[in-house]
Design goal:
The protein has eight helices and seven strands. The protein has a seven-stranded mixed sheet with strand order 3-2-1-4-5-7-6, with helices on both faces. The protein is globular. The structure holds S-adenosyl-L-homocysteine, 3,4-dihydroxybenzoic acid and magnesium ion (MG).
């Protein structure tokens, strides 16, 4: 994680926030459950690092266009991205989300229940590496869509485990891969940036997936996603 407290990081450019507000007003319907999830997360003392509303819908549309019936999320926080993704599921679909913090998982479970998606979502509380190893060991059915958004230093380990829980065509999305450009600084000592650089080195040699990166600006500043699809 970035060692700076979130408020001490560079603020987003005003125009980025203006454009987020503009498209949010046009493209997103007001959703009380999502807004309440953010309010309850703040109330519960969770850091304000959930995806933005437009990013949440971006993830939801990706999962929908993949017709995902089984979704895996690594890094739950208060369940905000989880709710966006759960709404992409058809009836009978399932989302498993991995979280290390009991306190975060408690807030998330309440938010998921209030959003009416608790029946479709399992929050597994443990270090993600342990939950992933257990699912692999137990031969869990492959996931159709995977969102990696936990401790960035472990990104390569999470990606490798995700691949073991995938099938041809599974989409794997990794959040926070740009971090204000730190990823491209070959002298960076930031553990998160180094974790993403290790992931990029790995992806450069991993023939089983095809990947790209999308840089983003908005309310959360300058950051981005890696998108990867598992090859046939
Ligand atoms: N996906 C959320 C944000 C997740 S923030 C959203 O956009 O709404 C990252 C989360 O990963 C935090 O809740 C943190 O507690 C969790 N985390 C950090 N290290 C972890 C680990 N080793 N295993 C599982 N979760 C971890
Ligand atoms: C951090 C983590 C996130 O998942 C995110 O989207 C933004 C910031 C962080 O650890 O600082
Ligand atoms: Mg994130």
């Amino acid at each position: 994680m970035d060692p700076r407290p979130y408020g001490a990081r560079p603020q987003p450019e005003k125009v980025w926030s203006d454009v987020d507000a503009y498209f949010q007003s046009k493209l997103l319907a007001p959703d009380a459950a999502l807004e309440n999830a953010l309010a309850a997360s703040a109330q519960g003392g969770l850091p304000a690092i959930a995806v933005t509303p437009l990013q949440g819908k971006f993830l939801q549309l990706l999962a929908r266009s993949a017709a995902a019936r089984r979704i895996l999320e690594i890094g739950t926080l208060g369940g905000y991205s989880t709710i966006w993704l759960a709404h992409a599921l058809p009836s009978g679909g399932k989302l498993i989300t991995l979280e290390i913090s009991d306190a975060h998982a408690d807030v998330a479970r309440k938010n998921l229940a209030a959003a009416g998606v608790a029946d479709r979502v399992d929050v597994l509380v443990a270090p993600a590496a342990d939950s992933l190893a257990k699912m692999i060991r137990e031969g869990a059915s492959p996931f159709d869509f995977i969102f990696i958004d936990a401790d960035k230093a472990s990104s390569t380990a999470y990606f490798r485990a995700s691949l073991a829980l995938s099938r041809a065509g599974t989409m794997i999305v990794v959040d926070n891969v740009v971090r204000e450009g730190a990823v491209a600084d070959d002298a960076t000592r930031d553990a998160s940036a180094l974790g993403i650089r290790e992931l990029a080195d790995y992806l450069a040699t991993e023939a089983r997936v095809s990947a790209t990166a999308v840089q983003t600006v908005g309310d959360k500043g300058y950051d981005g996603f890696i998108l990867a699809v598992v090859n046939p």
